[in-house]
């Protein structure tokens, strides 16, 4: 942070002039005006004083040996630490082209050596006003930077907490493999997904998306994830039926005062019954890729959670076969635009999944995200990206 060289009420002026008489006379005038004055007899000494003292204003002679005024200005403007220094150049040159040269090389204003005491006072006061505004801006900028650092540390901590809620890849049930990928858009996202083991033959899973981004969305998702724990679902719903769970969640999580809401898919995989049951609330990001090559999107048009407390969400059920794969994803994956605004879209995502076929789940997930990155032309996703893949092996049904 910048600080004044003297007390808060005293402003400092650096006078750089190789003529002792002129320099002493100007310094005396400035002292009478109440300023603290530092003197330097040439450009190099003045530059050293500027770095050491950080005066509020530098009054600089144009013509000096070794380093003239314009060269002094160029040195100052090339130094990030001195860049914002206010420089008032004294000169007997009053031709427009000479003034233009001085301004182009870094001076902020000019003062004629023949100027009256009234003009000197006015020019110095104007320079001080500008210097004060600049230093206030520097102080505010530094304060913002410090707060930004604190916020980034808090976001990183919160992001780690959110990621700690995500499931560990592996084999949650015998013969069932799960892999996932997560790319929050701002370091902290509102997408959250998990697997909830229900019994030795039943696995439930969900992907929810809180509207918005950042801390608020992430905290709302984390709160919702608590409701979706097995013991809470048994208490509030009494079963693992996806439709009944979303119907109860719709009552528990109404729209916020700011109009924020959740979309979600909740699914139940029953390996003994060889079925996949699911319900959705405003969520379109799930597809079943069968071993035969058929790709089917799992979605039905309905409201997100919280819009209408009387809404009843229905459960759909599909038969499963060995080798089938379920992909559950957030819309941030397929709603990525090119520079001209064209979205990648569900069709291209489906084609990508189909093209990867039955390569490993990890390859399909990473390759699909790479295709989305290639489409938009950069790594930063405008919305959170969550993708979970589940594969059913033959032994899951034995």
Provide a quick synopsis of the model.
The protein has ten helices and 16 strands.
Characterization of this structure:
The protein is of the alpha+beta class and 398 residues long. The chain has 2 domains: 12-142, 3-Layer(aba) Sandwich (Rossmann fold); 165-397, PPM-type phosphatase domain (Phosphatase 2c, domain 1, 4-Layer Sandwich), CATH 3.60.40.10. 38% of the residues lie in helices and 23% in strands. The longest helix is centred in the middle third of the chain and has 48 residues, at 117-164. 35% of the residues are buried.
Spatial arrangement of strands, main beta sheet: 6-7-16-15-12-13
Work out the count of structural domains. 2
Largest sheet: 6 strands, antiparallel
Overall 3D shape:
elongated
SSE inventory with pairings:
Elements: E1 12-16, H1 20-32, E2 36-40, H2 43-53, E3 57-61, H3 69-77, E4 86-91, H4 96-104, E5 109-112, H5 117-164, E6 170-173, E7 176-183, E8 191-197, E9 202-210, H6 214-227, H7 230-236, H8 242-252, E10 262-270, E11 275-281, E12 286-289, E13 295-297, E14 316-319, E15 325-329, H9 345-356, H10 361-376, E16 385-392
Parallel strand pairs: 1-2, 1-3, 3-4, 4-5
Antiparallel strand pairs: 6-7, 7-16, 8-9, 9-10, 10-11, 11-14, 12-13, 12-15, 15-16
Helix pairs in contact: 2-3, 5-6, 9-10
């Amino acid at each position: 942070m910048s600080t004044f060289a003297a007390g808060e009420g005293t402003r400092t002026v650096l006078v750089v002039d190789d003529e002792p008489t002129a320099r002493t006379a100007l310094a005396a005038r400035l002292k009478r005006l109440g300023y603290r004055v530092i003197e330097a007899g040439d450009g190099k000494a003045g530059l050293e004083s500027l770095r050491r003292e950080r005066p509020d204003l530098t009054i600089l002679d144009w013509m000096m040996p070794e380093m003239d005024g314009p060269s002094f200005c160029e040195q100052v403007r090339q130094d990030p630490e001195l860049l914002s220094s206010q420089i008032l150049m004294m000169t007997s040159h009053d031709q427009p082209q000479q003034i233009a040269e001085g301004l182009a090389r870094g001076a902020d204003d000019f003062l004629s050596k023949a100027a009256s005491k009234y003009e000197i006072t006015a020019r110095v006061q104007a320079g001080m006003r500008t210097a004060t505004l600049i230093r206030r801006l520097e102080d505010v900028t530094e304060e913002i930077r410090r707060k930004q650092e604190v916020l980034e540390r808090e976001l990183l901590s919160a992001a780690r907490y959110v990621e700690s809620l995500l499931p560990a890849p592996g084999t949650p049930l015998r013969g069932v493999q799960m892999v996932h990928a997560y790319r929050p858009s701002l370091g902290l996202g509102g997408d959250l997904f998990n697997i909830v083991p229900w019994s030795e033959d039943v696995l439930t899973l969900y992907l929810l998306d809180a509207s918005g981004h950042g801390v608020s969305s992430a905290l709302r998702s984390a709160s919702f994830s608590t409701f979706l724990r097995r013991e809470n679902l048994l208490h509030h719903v009494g079963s693992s039926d996806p439709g009944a769970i979303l119907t109860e969640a719709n009552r528990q999580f109404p729209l916020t005062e700011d109009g924020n809401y959740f979309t979600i898919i909740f699914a139940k995989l029953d390996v003994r019954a060889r079925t996949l049951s699911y319900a959705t609330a405003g969520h379109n990001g799930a597809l079943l890729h069968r071993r035969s090559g058929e790709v089917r999107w799992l979605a039905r048009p309905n409201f997100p959670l919280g819009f209408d407390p009387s809404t009843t969400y229905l459960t759909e059920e599909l038969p499963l076969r060995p080798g089938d794969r379920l992909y559950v994803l957030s819309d941030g994956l397929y709603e990525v635009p090119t520079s001209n605004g064209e979205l990648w879209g569900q069709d291209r995502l489906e084609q990508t999944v189909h093209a990867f076929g039955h390569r490993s789940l990890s390859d399909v997930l990473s390759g699909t995200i790479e295709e989305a990155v290639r489409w938009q032309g950069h790594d930063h996703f405008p919305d959170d990206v969550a993708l979970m893949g589940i594969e059913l092996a033959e032994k899951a049904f034995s």
